[in-house]
Amino acid sequence: MSHTRTPTWWLSATAVLSAGLLITGCLSNDPEAVADDDDNGSGAADTAPAGDNAEPGEDVVIGFSGPNAGHGWMGAITAAAQEQGEQFEDVELRVSEGTDDVNLQISQIEQFINDEVDAIVVLPFDGAALTEVAIDAMDAGIPVVNVDREFASPFAARTTILGDNYGMGVSAGTYICERLGDQDGAVVAEIAGIDSLPLTQDRSAGFEDALSDCGLEVSNRVAADFSVAGGEEAASNLLQAAPEIDAIWNHDDDQGVGVLAAIENAGREEFFMVGGAGSANMMREIQDADSVVEATVIYPSTQAADGIRLARLLAQGRAMGDLVQVEVPREIQLYAPVVTEENVEDYLDYAFES
User: Fold this and answer.
1) Domains of the chain, start order
2) What's this model's pTM, rounded to 2 decimal places?
């Protein structure tokens, strides 16, 4: 790809986003390089020495609670968290049943507190509603790792790990600029998720900002609901309203299954499409030369798995091996890369099924 127009605000954001890459590298440090005389081999020395984070530490119990896995991305979140917990011989992972009932999720956290677990990882169905019980856990001395949907208070979590919704929009818009930036009057369409959600608003804002950098704008926009049926209905409405389109960005690959059904039913193929989230379905579409799908933007379904890693380190009093600082960071935001036919093989094995 040859696009060289990089917005100045994106350069500053990249410095923050790159912190997310440290997680995947935190297991390979040389422990001898930062060895501490007080370390008893458990990784729980008072100075929280860095080192090889994969080395076993003291046994810890971690509780995990998340929403119902009725959505492909959400199902992958829980599965990845469970798989990560199983990889550590020093971790007992207790996974609560996924629920979209706020009161039930609150009771799950209360049970973890009563059980005196060593750390809690939470992807809240509603961050604001779970803030108070998360504060209760923190007050009880149990470090909380907040995943994806933020609590309403900084006192509710020791560490927060996030995807980058704004960055998703930037990545999608930048890719479309690379393809269409020299075409005056190019028609760009957007199929959003649930408009009332801040994550949708952030994705749209990033998309608009990136397009404006190359002189493009969103010509047609509809909103769906992250479901297959909602995606099909929204895309049908869009295609009826816009007789000619050059590019579409669909925010969510799960609803993208319905979007593609609507496109097929309409017999439209004059445009290319960029997906969002990074499902295996969309990546296989990218590999299909006859598909309108050219790319998708990753919204990592590994966030809770990374949360388990961080919770383990917090519970054991350890630091991230690739950081000089002797504490786990307060917040980590993961990057939103674009997957195309050139790099799809690098991402396909880690993708979720819609």
Assistant:
1) 8-164+301-335 (3.40.50.2300), 165-300+340-348 (3.40.50.2300)
2) 0.81
